[in-house]
Amino acid sequence: MQKQKRFDWILLVILFSYFMILLDNSIIFTGTVKIAEDLHLNENTLSWVSSAYSLTFGGFLLVGGRAGDLFGRRRVFQIGLVIFGLGSFLVGAAQSAGVIIAARAFQGIGSAILAPTTLAILMDTYTGENRVRAIGYYGAMAGIGASVSLVIGGVFASLLTWRVGFFINVPIAAWMFYLSIRHLHKDTVQEGQLDWLGTLTSLFGMIALVYSIVGTVGQLYALIAAVILLGIFIFQEAKTKHPIMPLRLFADRERFGAYLGRFLYMGAMLGFWFITPQLMQNQLGFTPLMAGIAFFPLTIVNFIVALQVARLTKKLGNGGLLILGILLTFAGMFWISRFAPATGYWLGIALPMVVIGVGQGLSLSPFTASGVANTLGADAGAASGVVNVMHQIGGSIGLSILVAVEGLSKNAVTGFQHAILTGSALLFLALIAAIFLIMPGERHRQA
């Protein structure tokens, strides 16, 4: 009984902490209008409320993952909770553009520490069937959290205030801190040292890369800087004895396929989550609250299906389940790309969302499992960092691509159709990665 009780509390800490990150990564989508009104922000300044978070989140992910390996996961996790909780409070209390942008950047650092550390703690804690089940819940949270946050954001923005969405993180972070002291294993610090050149080049290289996607001026220069810095980073990682991101992580066919597939998959999904609520408000007359609630078909089905992942993995295998999940997501996304106002919400959006929800529920957990497959304890944090980097950067790049495609058309509905069709193409490429990289890699591992 004691073992089961410990399992429940540790998993609660991991999932709640991860949910906080996902909540504030997407809740901004439905709260931007109210934030702009309250703080008198123009469109350019408002974009930085989201971009500042993305910059530091993407930039510090690899550092956050490696720090847990070297300095102890529980200690680093608790530091991340403090930073995230304080950052959330500052965002909620902000009264000016400068304060909210700086607070969002600070909050992003906390997220970058928590995201890979929670997954690494999971890998340290569970083995065998318990690990499969825990990864299933963790992967499901990636989809459920993003979907639910749209609903929560709509509720807060419409009925209360957008500030509640950030203030609520403070008591949750404090509770997680307390539970981490009570239930997480004491730290076992590994030998090694922090690769400072790799740390700095990865940090500023990732920030430059994200800025080249979300920035407003000088994106080309940022992209050039990102290529140079990340090139130095890769060279450094190849020769140092203590890499922040061991390149051997990419030598495994299954892991490489999982990183590539997750990058493409999240590119399609984040763009879908971003532009679909706008379509429902602009073309169907939905309020922000209604647009959030309209995601329930996806969210509920996702949750139900995700609970079955551990059982289905035994029957179909991780790779087989992933292929089925991506295929269903692709089918639902292609269906929704045929939307027209005359079709209406139920047939044009809700029913395709059900198919996408099933596919998403089946996909994200296997992606996570393959992304950390065959890793030694010393590499768990680094592998977890790469999983989250691909999740974050893939989402940012995919969102930018879909928004750009949508803007090419003067007709809003046609633009939406073309953007979602582009997302379908990304999902098709993710399916190819699963078939030709992940599936063979899994078979080789089991041989």
UniProtKB/TrEMBL annotation:
Residues 10-442 form the Major facilitator superfamily (MFS) profile domain. The chain crosses the membrane at residues 9-33, 45-64, 76-95, 101-123, 135-156, 162-181, 193-213, 219-235, 256-275, 287-307, 319-337, 343-364, 385-404, 416-439. Keywords: Cell membrane, Membrane, Transmembrane, Transmembrane helix, Transport. It is a multi-pass membrane protein. Its main location: membrane. It is found in: Cell membrane. Gene3D superfamilies: MFS general substrate transporter like domains, Multidrug resistance protein D. The keyword Membrane applies. It comes from the Bacteria. The keyword Transport applies. This is MFS transporter.
